[in-house]
Amino acid sequence: MSSPFLWGVASAAFQVEGALAEDGRAPSVWDTFAARPGAVLDGHSPAVACDHYHRWPQDVELLGRLGVNAYRFSLAWPRVVPQGSGAVNGAGLDFYDRLVDALLERGVTPFPTLFHWDLPQALEDAGGWTSRDTARAFADYAAAAADRLGDRVPRWITLNEPVVHMAYGHAFGIHAPGRTLEVPEVLRVAHHLLLAHGLAAAELRSRGLEALLTNNLTPVRSPEDPSGADLAAGAAYDALHNRLFADPVLLGSYPDLSAFGAAEVPGVREGDMEAIAGSADGIGVNYYNPSLVLAPEEGAGLPFSLGEITGVPTTAFGWPVVPEGLTETLVGLTERYGEALPPLYVTENGCSREDAVVGGRVADPERTAYLESHIAAVDAARERGADVRGYFVWTLTDNFEWAQGYHQRFGLVHVDHRTQVRTPKDSFARYRDIIAARTGAPESSG
Length: 446
Known about the structure:
This protein is an alpha/beta fold. 52% of the residues are buried. The protein has one domain (6-439): TIM Barrel (Alpha-Beta Barrel). The longest helix is centred in the middle third of the chain and has 24 residues, at 183-206. It is built from 15 helices and 13 strands. It starts with 5 loop residues before the first strand and ends in a 7-residue tail after the last helix. Keywords: Carbohydrate metabolism, Cellulose degradation, Glycosidase, Hydrolase, Polysaccharide degradation.
């Protein structure tokens, strides 16, 4: 008997929990980065975020009202293993223990992510992802989490969007840890992230659990009348953004990165590719928009440049709203990787708006339309043969949106970050009714 389709929402520990120094949690790279002047827009502090660490029963109650049957959240590595390696913090795991039990009591499947960018600062001080030791430390952390929660949590995501963490955090310096490394070292980071996934997957599988990898994916678009240079730029961008963290897992080899001056990926040792290849029991797809890729501008330093997609609505982030791009992504994966591709889950998809509470209500028709159109895009992909088994909206509550602070609101629930008052938006009610119609649950007017 097949498992039911997963209808859920997604979140991340650093973006919602707060309590950054409670119950033995040590600093992460994001604590350090957010404290830098100018690193986060308007100096917004993540210290409280959504106060989920204290208000989780209220948030679980919201999940129950929403009617989801799955909740994707992340464990904070520095809360579970404060120094990144070594002693495990039982008090930190107690928090996730309580959360998992509460979710199961509500009939909500826990779908945890082990790494959503909050590397313990102690590991960063020892080299971070440029060090091979970090991959081994991650596997040990995965084992500790699985030993505590694996009896109730059969399916785990190892890494969230490693391409974004690699590029924004280690090449461009606009996310934690704020590094601007040269290409060879950036690719070394990529390899260690993949190795970490492979080693952690082995730990999870040895305990009878599933290991998934979540990537941020984008369909690559060319201008209407592309030149050969435009097409070459598109291929280079596709290799970096879409294939770098997929090909090694699904095909056992790295894509052609010669456009970046890399004849090979640094740091690969004997046995590494065997540990990485075939190590995913599912692929998570985080989709927000396609990318228009053009030939590089003179002196750009990269083999591509990015253009603006016009003629479509945009979110508050300025991202183009192109739901058919999600169909293209899911079907494209299916066609590219064939039998090597495990089941797919849309692990993030959502829309930022400048929401406000007016008369006790948050009207967000653009987000409602966004969800309807992207769910239809998933349906279209499944009709075309994509084995999609879940859809998760980003996100439940308005949260700390990384370098944007509290300026970008993605939540189905509005959060007043001064009072922590939560107000479900109109999109919350619409998603609830979509789920109810799909699952046969009774719709609610509450």
